[in-house]
Design goal:
The complex is a heterodimer of chains A (115) and B (113). Chain A is globular and about 45 Å long. Chain A is built from no helices and 12 strands. Chain A has 115 residues and is mostly beta strands. Helices cover 0% and strands 51% of the residues of chain A. Chain B is mainly beta. Chain B contains no helices and 11 strands. In chain B, strand 4 and strand 5 form a beta hairpin. Chain B is globular and about 40 Å long. Classes of the chains: A mainly beta (115), B mainly beta (113). At the A-B interface, strand 5, strand 6 and strand 11 of A face strand 4, strand 5 and strand 9 of B.
């Protein structure tokens, strides 16, 4: 199975500032998808952004953008103009192209936004 | 629109008791279904996935089992719970498509005492 590593268990950022969450993964596949999910205290998982491995252009969604480095197997999430509502657990996820198309998640990064 | 239902929301069970968590999906057919467990302070661990009725794949050896008796029904079971089975269990569905995201259920908080 593929592995996903998030080396930052906790991060904090001042409101309106920018923060980057790190993620690395290990795979032998050439085509796959990468995702960032947000889990607020309600525990409901929310899709933040996704990246197709064959696309070189980094994905962006409003204040959220990724830095995808395929050769380095790195997929970091940048949150600009941080807001209090961004406080949550963030999970990096890898989606395989194998039968089942299952996701493999990292251990998560808990983000605190300081007013 | 598609919806996913998971119940119960919380459950407290004694060690050695059986377990049955149920998940159903509405508004779609032939979904891929998944069970994940989120232990305290840890990420989401894939337990089982199913691409069709009666088809179950297990990711990790454990005390749990899964079944898919109907197209849109996915059940997580145990004959005898262990303390280590405590955690937050999430049912997930997705289309059998590489670029389709996951839709998560609301989760079940299981505490084994």
């Amino acid at each position: 199975a593929q592995t996903v590593t998030q080396s930052q268990p906790e991060m904090s950022v001042q409101e309106a500032e920018t923060v980057t969450l790190s993620c690395t993964y290990d795979t032998s596949e050439s085509d796959y998808y990468l995702f960032w999910y947000k889990q607020p205290p309600s525990r409901q998982m929310i899709l933040v952004i996704r990246q197709e491995a064959y696309k070189q252009q980094n994905a962006t969604e409003n204040r959220f953008s990724v830095n995808f480095q395929k050769a380095a197997k790195s997929f970091s999430l940048k949150i600009s103009d941080s807001q209090l509502g961004d406080a949550a657990m963030y999970f990096c996820a890898y989606r395989t192209y194998n039968t089942g198309n299952q996701f493999y998640f990292g251990t998560g990064t808990s983000l605190t936004v300081i007013p | 629109s598609q919806t996913i239902h998971q119940w119960p929301a919380t459950l407290v069970q004694p060690v050695g008791s059986p377990l049955s968590l149920e998940c159903t999906v509405e508004g779609t057919s032939n979904p891929n279904l998944y069970w994940y467990r989120q232990a305290a302070g840890r990420g989401l661990q894939l337990l089982f996935y199913s691409v069709g009725i009666g088809q179950i794949s297990s990711e990790v050896p454990q005390n749990l089992s899964a079944s898919r008796p109907q197209d849109r029904q996915f059940i997580l079971s145990s004959k005898k719970l262990l303390l280590s089975d405590s955690g937050f269990y999430l049912c997930v569905w997705s289309r059998d498509s590489r670029n389709y995201g996951y839709t998560f259920g609301s989760g079940t908080r299981l505490t084994v005492v």
